[in-house]
Amino acid sequence: MIPRPFAEVASVGVAVPPGVLTNADLTRMLDTSDEWIVERTGIRERHIARPEQTVAMLSHEASLRALASAGAVPADLDAIVLATASPDRLLPSTACDLQALLGAENAAAFDIGAACPGFVYALTVAEGLIASGQSDTVLVVGAEKLSTITDFQDRSTAILFGDGAGASVVRRSTRPGRGILSTFIKSDGRLAPLLYRPGGGSVDPISEKVVCERSHYMKMAGREVFKAAVLAMADACDEALRRAGVSADEIDLLVPHQANLRIIEATAKHAGVPMSKVMVNVDRYGNTSSASIPLALEQAVSEGRVDSGTVILVVAFGAGFTWGSAVIRW
Ligand code: COA
């Protein structure tokens, strides 16, 4: 086998809808408080898309930024791999809508359903497409409009989620030693009912009953999910480091999934990475599922925390359960 890296993350671009929903706004809708939300989650506000703003539109905006920053054009793309838990329609894929918006005439396009680690799953698929010789340039996108599947009458979930999109151009590695050094993805579907949307799919198609029961919205057993997230994120950090042959000391930046500040702190502690090397922006965006890693990565790049050669550990966990991680030398 040809040694890694096969592929590099050439850029990251994001799109965030302008509408902001603060904790104070939520206290006017639900029996909750800013203190409770900040103490339990670290979240202060989240962005919410306008009704007409689609996941494909947010993806398009993020993708144009990622393409420009990588010096690439849509015609360069061999594939578009879009991770989302809130697709615009169930058929066809949101990736196909994005392909059309971009005019990416040479690209295959498909969605990945892996919930919060969707971006890490998509990155893994992109690397595989490049390693196998199928593709040279792949657009990886994580994009969500979770506000459409969040029950704003349920205080245990409504406080957590937000909308946004992020994209990266992933291409054949051209700089020796730079690129994706390892990836790791895993799942445990036995735990699906701890975080899921019971209705609205083909098991229980959308109907008056589904709408009245509000079963098309996300349901979550928060405490159980919290415990599983801490364990899985720790496992994923260990695996990505082991596979990359990199020690915790060599990590310059940890970019964890932004679900909850307490989960992030536990993950950093387990990985042996000090909080000064951890990217945190859950306070501004809440949990944006598959968009969360690129939103945090882009902020790190904008703040000058990522340079050529920076070693980054990304790690995420979500519904399924699914989890995954990667080590990237930028
Ligand atoms: N405001 C005020 N009180 C709330 C509340 C809210 N928004 N949501 C729940 N509560 C109440 C509960 O009703 C419960 O009250 P009770 O003790 O009278 O029954 C109490 O707070 C504790 O609830 P609990 O669910 O045990 O709280 P918690 O400390 O586990 O925090 C979460 C709840 C959701 C913040 C936490 O479990 C969590 O972050 N879980 C992981 C979620 C996640 O990251 N999911 C996505 C994974 S990708």
Task: Describe the structure using short key phrases.
2 domains; six-stranded mixed beta sheet; 330 residues; 14 strands; alpha+beta; single chain; four-stranded mixed beta sheet; Peroxisomal Thiolase, Chain A, domain 1; binds coenzyme A
Descriptive notes:
The chain is α+β, with helices and mostly antiparallel strands and 330 residues long. The chain folds into two domains: 7-176, Thiolase/Chalcone synthase (Peroxisomal Thiolase, Chain A, domain 1), CATH 3.40.47.10; 180-329, Peroxisomal Thiolase, Chain A, domain 1 (3-Layer(aba) Sandwich), CATH 3.40.47. 34% of the residues lie in helices and 22% in strands. It contains eleven helices and 14 strands. The strands form four sheets. Strands 1, 2, 5, 6, 7 and 8 form a six-stranded mixed β-sheet that branches. Strands 9-14-13-12 form a four-stranded mixed β-sheet, with helices on both faces. A two-stranded antiparallel ribbon has the order 3-4. It starts with 6 loop residues before the first strand and ends with a strand. It binds coenzyme A. Coenzyme A (COA) binds next to helix 2, helix 6, helix 8 and strand 13.
